[in-house]
Amino acid sequence: MQTLLFLIVFPILVACLLLFVKRTTIRYAVVALSALAIGGASIYLLMRYAFEGAVYFAAPSGAIDLAMVAIEMGLALFIIYMGAKFRNYLAILLAVIQAALVVYLEMTFSGSLHAANNLFIDQFSIIMALIIGLIGSLIAVYAVRYMETYHHHHPEVRDRQTFFFFVTFVFLAAMFGLVFSNNLMWLFFFWEITTISSFLLIGYSETEEATKNAFRALVMNLLGGVAFVVAIVLLAATEPTSGGIDLARVLASPDAAVVLIPVVLIGFAGITKAALMPFSSWLLGAMVAPTPVSALLHSSTMVKAGVYILVRFSPVFAGTFAGFSIGLVGGVTFLVASAIAISRSDAKSVLAYSTIANLGLIAACAGVGTYMLVWAAILLIVFHAVAKALLFLGTGVIEQRTGSRNIEDMEGLIVRMPKMAVMMFIGIAGMFLAPFGMLISKWAAIEAFVQVPFGLIFIAILAYGSAVTVFFWAKWMGKLVTVTQNTERVEKGFFEESWAPLYIITGLVIAAVFLFPVISSMLIEPYVLAIYGVTAHLADANVAIMLLMMALLLILPVSFLLFKRTARHLPAYMGGRPATPDLHFAGSLGLTREAQTRNYYLTEYFGEAKLFRPGAAVCIVLILVSWILAGVAL
Amino acid sequence: MNWLIGAVLFLILAPIAGGLIAGIDRKITARMQGRVGPPLLQPFYDVGKLFEKERAVVTTAQNFYVLAYLIFIALSGALFFAGGDLLLIVFAFTLAHVFLVLGAYAVHSPYSHIGAERELIQVMAYEPMIILAAVGFYMVSGSFYVTEIAATTVPAILYLPGVFLGFAVILTIKLRKSPFDISTSHHAHQEIVKGITTEFSGSTLAQVEIAHWYENVFLLGFVFLFFAWNPVIGVVAVAITYLAEIFVDNVTARARWQAALKSGWLATLLGIANLAILSYMMLGGA
Amino acid sequence: MSTMAFLKRSPWILHYDASSCNGCDIEVLACLTPLYDVERFGIINTGNPKHADILMITGGINELNRAVVRNLYEQMPEPKVVVAIGICAATGGIFRECYNIAGGVDKVIPVDVYVPGCAARPEMIIDGVVAALSILEEKRAKMTGAAQIKDDARHAAGEST
Questions:
Q1: Which parts of the sequence belong to the NADH:ubiquinone oxidoreductase-like 20kDa subunit domain (chain C) (predicted)?
Q2: What is the mean pLDDT of residues A526-541?
Q3: Chain C partners of A570 at a C-beta cutoff of 8 Å?
């Protein structure tokens, strides 16, 4: 239990310490050392608890419960203050409702607000802890140098770096707390902390746009928060034997119909936090924040909390129509967000839509909730976290070096920033190509949906969805590998230390493929087995083939040695016009003109304007249907 | 051990079979146009010739991507004939095509670039249907493994007529036949020169051609699965399907990419409708 | 490798209309029609210099397409031959006195076969291509031979050091 408490408390201590560190070098040392400690502790956690199944800890309550309520009230006051300052009355309203519900909860049900055990750990929590502890802290390390350069490039933004790192580490602590809590009141407390943290980080630059988007994120997440409290009120009102606020008991509740309504409400909170449609706009708006924030929000924290909660409760969703309906929200989000990603040329926007799509897929798996799907969902969480972190950090580096994060401007990156291009290449491959992780999970999901009644809907969604996914990733990849001539290398000059997190995460993307059988058999399969009594796994022969493919991919670059350097180099064919290798050609009237290549964005078919509203409308209907169905089941 | 024999036989024999099929294709096409046509072995002469040509590249990297394309096409075909998991095969197949597309991007040429974009649109057009076909086989045979699908005694085609028709549509895209030969064409020039293969010459182009042979044999194997319960009917059906593709190739003009995308996706809808009815019948039966 | 010689069986053509009156172009196209069907000899009209073995040019060279013809020729990988179709491609023909005409194709790039005629008849064009094939084969042999000599020289140098 000490390790659990360490992971929750230590980041908070570091956060407080960082409030007083003004110099970048010292800050770098502090952040790097604490990242080491946090990463080390999460790996220790893995070794200590991986083989023990679910372990519960009573953990002291009483004083802590009281402190939590006090902090929640404080946060509500803070939101009201901020809401008043920036005239966002909706935020105030939601904060007041939420605070009132918490007070009501404490007053009315004070007797039943005790969980037998406040903390717990099982294999799923270990996986989440590893993601937060490794990826999250690597992003924090990367952020130190990034923020220094950021302020160098943006002198107009007030330098609040001490505050930035304070919030970042509080965020990490809250995430650890969230995945270790067995008491739903605790879980809700950490849930709210992540909401506030992301609000503060998104609004970091204090521009009008940043503030607006921060409030949008806040409002949407508060909406989820309100649903969460209502769920806790409903659970507290039930008999402790059939649920109460003890997570383990709710999951094992013999009275599934009774807990279904609150769980669907918590699922709704998950939907808002995971930025599924119609709430996807907050995650897109979050792009205004400095890149490490996006990396944090998209890969290891925040949205992962949303899908964590959905996957956690998926045994309750399993086999219910309400769960199926929530799964459909995820499915529709996956399809629509993937399609919209085609029409985007801003790298961060593409990444954001891809995150939304993948979270949708995870939610689809969790909502339907058969054992194979939960297995696939957890795999998706792991692989997505690693690859997406790499892509965001990479985009950050590219933006700082080249001054643009437009995919069109990344043309020829393989020449201009070879190291970065290779890493981006691996990251993108990780998102959609065999034998990398995301594809394994999608494949597993297809095999799982086949066995579900009405699973055909999801199969169709997956079939179309993965096709559009190939399109938008591959054309980005294409831009990266275009060998442009006569372009300057700009890789040097970026602070050396910042490469370390990138190298490590790139290594993790590749390692994840090789380690995937181990991750599956050591962590995911026992977890699924413990809950469902059966487990899924990939056939050994297929694993062997995947490893073979991966090995091939790693060996293939050696073939460069085979190609004769003596081959004659010809410029590209330009319809017979004499052209230079960098596509300048003799135009009419003796003028030299330049040919440029641009990707297809097919806005007419896949534009945001065209697809977002219908997608959001369908999702709203599905969410309402999930509530109605949960009510009917009662 | 059977699986190994299947894979090895494919790796050795598919280029020969694929080249012969291409030769027959050209001969039949010529006859349909009232011509005599080239010798049966013409495709082999062509590829042999390409290996004799000088090595000329725009960038050395193009060789790497095309080699990767060839290897992964061969790999996915080998997995298919080894009786592997159909979904894994489909994904390996996609990987191969992404490599071809990257090769076309790498050369930084306007014509290649348009070809690459169109190739990606083609991938987007056929991918849903090909996944759906795999799912259809699963619903009939209870397995994603080619070995077990091929061993079923039920005629898959009777359960999956819609899926088969849908697959026939995307087969036209995959075989690079009119009206969907939008990214590159076997015929005389088109509006984007040779599209995706414009900048590939000599042995690199030969590798693309060999990959195409592998691919065609693999695709015809896929068609065979629909009729696998009776090998004789299967072979005949494959031949008729291919003939029909040649016929379509000769009577249609090239369509725009929008038409390719819409056709591919509508074909998938047909497949989905087929599977929906099938699963309804299965639920009813159970 | 050098004994196989597939080149003769698979000559791919790039046809360029320099400043022809279209008479010869029609005849070139006629070669592809069922009546003449040059695909019998493995001949394909590729339209892409990077794939072509034979550059077929109709019409004389003018000041504007001078650079284009040279570029097309340079884009073709070795071995390659050039066939000038029609009298204009050979000498400039009836246009040779025009202010903008430089003359025949050989003003810009080396020509291997001249097919006379105004317009050149399909039979003659096919005949010209067949003549080009043996030149193509010669060039190929020379190319592999040159490579062989270079290789041998390198080996010899390697042994001596």
A1: 21-131
A2: 84
A3: 50, 74-75
